[in-house]
Amino acid sequence: MQEKKIPYKIYLEESEMPDSWYNLRADMKNKPAPLINPGTGKPLTAEELSPIFCEELVAQELDDTTPFIKIPDEILSFYRMYRPSPLVRAYCLEKKLQTPAKIYYKFEGNNTSGSHKLNSAIAQAYYAQKQGLKGVTTETGAGQWGTALSMACSYFDLDLKVFMVKVSYEQKPFRREVMRTYGASVVPSPSETTEIGKKILAEHPGTTGSLGCAISEAVEVATKNPGYRYVLGSVLNQVLLHQSVIGLETKAALDKYGIKPDVIIGCAGGGSNLGGLIAPFMGEKLKGTADYRIVAVEPASCPSFTRGTFAYDFCDTGMICPLAKMYTLGSSFIPSANHAGGLRFHGMSTILSQLYHDGYMEAVSVEQTSVFEAAEQFARIEGILPAPESSHAIRVAIDEALKCKETGEEKTIVFGLTGTGYFDLVAYEQYNDGVMTDTIPTDEDIAASIAKLPKVE
Ligand SMILES: *Cc1c(COP(=O)(O)O)cnc(C)c1O
Q: Which of 37, 47, 273, 282 is the most exposed place for a label (fewest CB within 10 A)?
């Protein structure tokens, strides 16, 4: 059979878009460990979760048996405004690197939020509106999640309060304005507006905040105000479920041309884009019908997989959220303030943690100066200004392609290009000025926060 010429961009027809999300947990023999109530030490029930999350999302969070969950029409019609997203063959980058490798990236930056986060934001806002809620609260780090959620909430007429990590609030005023334009109110975290915020400020005056603190504040406000629930943009099983559209579209596009990837690479903060991208491929791997190398890339300054411990831990610094069994650096771990590249969460999705623990995927950590070097190389040849987070995956994709150059192997590499970097120009400025540094936590730093892990039987 003659090989079809592969276009620069493989688009799917609307009719070829997935109409269900794929729940990878259904095909896992070792299921991810359940969330635990820190008060009782027992797995959280739907009843206990429902004051925090809306009902339908609680059901999705706990469902580890249903393989396909139908995407409601209201969500599908929103998806159609910006999806399917293109799968791009990086012909120009391949040529520049003079590699025999074939490189593809799935580009999720083609919407106003500039990232894949909209895929879950719209789902979570939909279920909140369907339940008749007044609004939702959340945290945001770099601001992509808050932006995505503000778009989703304005679409479904929901009130939104965003706790934004203080260092980002100050460094990224433009993100903040986008959120306010979509009608969200944005509070720098830690703040004096919550009990937990006041406590954290008293203990750590002058702190620049962390995602963990912001989560604690957002949960407090959601549970204290009737008609409000909390939503989270990463880590949770429901978020990985919604993000499976990335992987399903990628697989459908590759299948159209009979392409089978050898290596699939994604950056990992809380694990949502990676979990979504790899879902159908990992499903095949779990069933033994195909094999792929799957690589998670994380920052050397926040190395949950590569230097963390697989244990139950709090998802937030304030220690009020449920306990999740995951690779963690300890909920009191706060990455160095000079870390500019996102992916700052101390833990990792329980699904990915279990898969990593069982040997189904690899993880590497990379330093931010080398990440920005890859970002710049990519921007100059492929034309897209990548988000620093996404650039972690670019770094490792380029490294894999360069290895192929040495060995002459024609491997097919697929990576997730999760978003654009227009709001990350302070970080790019540091890199361009040559003042960006790498701060890698010492073993003592990590041991100190690991020592504070909660005791769980
Ligand atoms: C949030 C974000 C990430 C990291 O989050 P995951 O849940 O690990 O996917 C990566 N890239 C971009 C552009 C993001 O906004």
A: 47
